[in-house]
Amino acid sequence: xxxxxxxxxxxxxxxxxxxxxxxxxxxxxxxxxxxxxxxxxxxxxxxxxxxxxxxxxxxxxxxxxxxxxxxxxxxxxxxxxxxxxxxxxxxxxxxxxxxxxxxxxxxxxxxxxxxxxxxxxxxxxxxxxxxxxxxxxxxxxxxxxxxxxxxxxxxxxxxxxxxxxxxxxxxxxxxxxxxxxxxxxxxxxxxxxxxxxxxxxxxxxxxxxxxxxxxxxxxxxxxxxxxxxxxxxxxxxxxxxxxxxxxxxxxxxxxxxxxxxxxxxxxxxxxxxxxxxxxxxxxxxxxxxxxxxxxxxxxxxxxxxxxxxxxxxxxxxxxxxxxxxxxxxxxxxxxxxxxxxxxxxxxxxxxxxxxxxxxxxxxxxxxxxxxxxxxxxxxxxxxxxxxxxxxxxxxxxxxxxxxxxxxxxxxxxxxxxxxxxxxxxxxxxxxxxxxxxxxxxxxxxxxxxxxxxxxxxxxxxxxxxxxxxxxxxxxxxxxxxxxxxxxxxxxxxxxxxxxxxxxxxxxxxxxxxxxxxxxxxxxxxxxxx
Length: 529
Description:
- By secondary structure, this protein is mostly helical.
- The protein has helices at residues 9-12, 21-43, 61-74, 85-102, 108-128, 131-150, 160-171, 191-199, 206-223, 229-243, 260-275, 278-293, 299-308, 323-346, 359-364, 422-443, 461-481, 489-509, and strands at residues 174-176, 185-186.
- The radius of gyration is 26 Å and the shape is elongated.
């Protein structure tokens, strides 16, 4: 029985500036925290002569609790004045204790907590504190964050993990919080710090620079054309340069941790899509198509590119589609299936000699059970990126298409004849992540009867027929992959091998001869005048 394909055209074309404000604010803050924690793992272990500050006497343990209590009172006091103890305590907390804490070598967990609380306290103050206090609090937090992120008190930098947390604060500062269903308004006045003092600063750790880029992306998505012209042009130049493979010096792909550069390019996609002119959108549509077609492109960026493509509804219609394009997209799907075949086969490892069955035991069907990687927690396999993307439930919020949070799975709830082995569930998730992105990019919709603005809208004649043929192959393979009759590893693997072979043969039969294409050397990112 065929598996029903749920439509996602509506979800895929939601305007990203219409997301619910408060939820978006929290998602962006959470994303930055996750990103910061990942990038800080290496940075926190670095040796170096970093700034260390002595604790002011007023922040000793018993006194600190009282100050924290006064800060909480200040956030809800509608009659607060600069002369009040609560005002003075809050000022001291964010201009003195914050700097002290960020300078300590062993305060990582507390540092993250204070960073998150600063963002939350700004929102709380916006609801009930006086305008004067709100402005003062914003200034204290911003000044301290800039000092930690890019300052050099006493001739020394703060530790990388502290600078990452401070960059996170700057990236998420607002002049108006989310309210009445409207998204927050980012503080554009920090644009110069994000770009010049952090993103392009060669002496800033890579984690700081990537978090600064997340702030550029956040402002671009939330404000779009409302950004001041000079800032918009600067941000647009950053996005285009990244997608051309031209990051600022020191952020080249080979110098970053695995995957970090791919996420930078995903931010760049959002920046150009949010700020670009019709001509920029056309350029972006062609660039995204090329990224998906590039066999060397990581699934982290390639699948995101495929998902974004149909949102460029007018520009995608102008994308040149060739037989090579169609074959390359089909090859990406075939590669995903083949990777899952290899992965599942690798789970059947030879047993050690001391545990091998005798021939008599084997004949009786004795032994059994899973070992090795099968003993992992269900879903852990989804962290492996070889097959082509994280499982949807492992994605960070900003990894998803704007408007697609909470979007139903490609094939809806999976009806099963019996409980599925975790490795089969993980394989289905990885394949679905690949196929869903490719189907959206090709057709603009997951509904076979729907209409969208994917590559099919741009193709003509035989090229359009080729896309329709590939869509039919992908949908057939997807129905097989999600058919609950394959409810154990052996049956699922047999089906997967057959589907992989069929799709691979389709691709090979349509692959034209391709001469090697020389590539121009990448140039460094430069400021846009």
